[in-house]
Amino acid sequence: MADMTTLRFTKGHGTENDFVLLPDADARLTLDADTVRWLTDRRAGIGGDGVIRVVPTSAATEDGVRAQAGEAAWFMDYYNADGSVAEMCGNGTRVFAEYLRREGLETGDEFAIATRAGLRRIRFEGDLVATNMGPWRLVDEQVATRDGFDALVRLDANEEPWSALSIDVGNPHTVVALPEAVDLATLDLTSAPEVSPAPPHGSNVEFVRPLGPGHIAMRVHERGVGETRSCGTGVVAAALATSWWAGQPEPTQDWTVDVPGGRLRVRGMPNHEVELAGPAALVADGTVDLPA
Ligand SMILES: N[C@@H](CCC[C@H](N)C(=O)O)C(=O)O
């Protein structure tokens, strides 16, 4: 359990991917998996897809995070609902940035935040928050270049697997090109899709349906969570995969990605980087007493 019993929290979401934010300016909070699971429980706790600890970058325990302290004052310490630690969360970056500004911890329209996947640059753009998601890479470039796909995914052991592409955007993703005959809306994502070859650290899995030029719909099964109503890194991976399959390895147009919780924009940037833009909302503040 954490080393204190009453915690302040803020609840926020980005396209209904929802998080419990825990301020920890003094870096006194140690989160274990039980505490995270309890906080994210939608019946017994507060409820959320993940927990974000808001902590000074200089106080992070990981060397790779502390190394970002010169450029980013605050570290987005991210946990999935099952208590596992994740490298990155695209929707989380916007909610985290919105929180930092509301609390006066950052004051400009542009600043950087620290994540386990490296520095992420934030830009406020009207009602939207844009995050430079950094560089991305194909997990198996050789196979992906030759075949367009490098993985197989199935939801049901009795069905034929679907072709997929593995992309790393700071965290692992497997994007499925859904056959036309399959209805995206009625896919059963209640259990984790089977991915082969099995990714060494698991994978978030996205299911994509093209809707028109530069426009796709997506549903996602998140590693460490289950189906969520949005996943920012997943949206980026889905746009990159669709662009790749269309013969455009570096996206030159904006992609609009519809998810059950809303709409996000993906934009190719110089130097093989990609930007994600969308809304961020802080909806509640309170205190919570952790069970003994
Ligand atoms: N919802 C996030 C991704 C959160 C982490 C993910 N479940 C993982 O384990 O990699 C997003 O918006 O990117």
UniProtKB/TrEMBL annotation:
Where, by residue number, does substrate bind? N17, N80, G90, N91, N171, N204, E222, R223, G232, T233
Q: Name one GO cellular component term.
A: cytosol
Asked whether the UniProt record includes Cytoplasm among its keywords, one would answer yes
Q: Which GO terms describe its molecular function?
A: diaminopimelate epimerase activity
According to its UniProt record, which reaction does this protein catalyse? (2S,6S)-2,6-diaminopimelate = meso-2,6-diaminopimelate
Subunit: Homodimer.
Q: What does this protein do?
A: Catalyzes the stereoinversion of LL-2,6-diaminopimelate (L,L-DAP) to meso-diaminopimelate (meso-DAP), a precursor of L-lysine and an essential component of the bacterial peptidoglycan.
- Protein name as it appears in the record: Diaminopimelate epimerase
Under InterPro entries, the record lists:
DAP_epimerase_AS (IPR018510), DAP_epimerase_DapF (IPR001653)
Q: What are its E.C. numbers?
A: 5.1.1.7
- Output the GO biological process annotations, alphabetical, semicolon-separated: lysine biosynthetic process via diaminopimelate
- In which organism is this protein found? Knoellia remsis
Quote the pathway field: Amino-acid biosynthesis; L-lysine biosynthesis via DAP pathway; DL-2,6-diaminopimelate from LL-2,6-diaminopimelate: step 1/1
**What's the superkingdom here?**
Bacteria
What is this enzyme's class at the first EC digit? isomerase
Alphabetically ordered keywords of this record: Amino-acid biosynthesis, Cytoplasm, Isomerase, Lysine biosynthesis
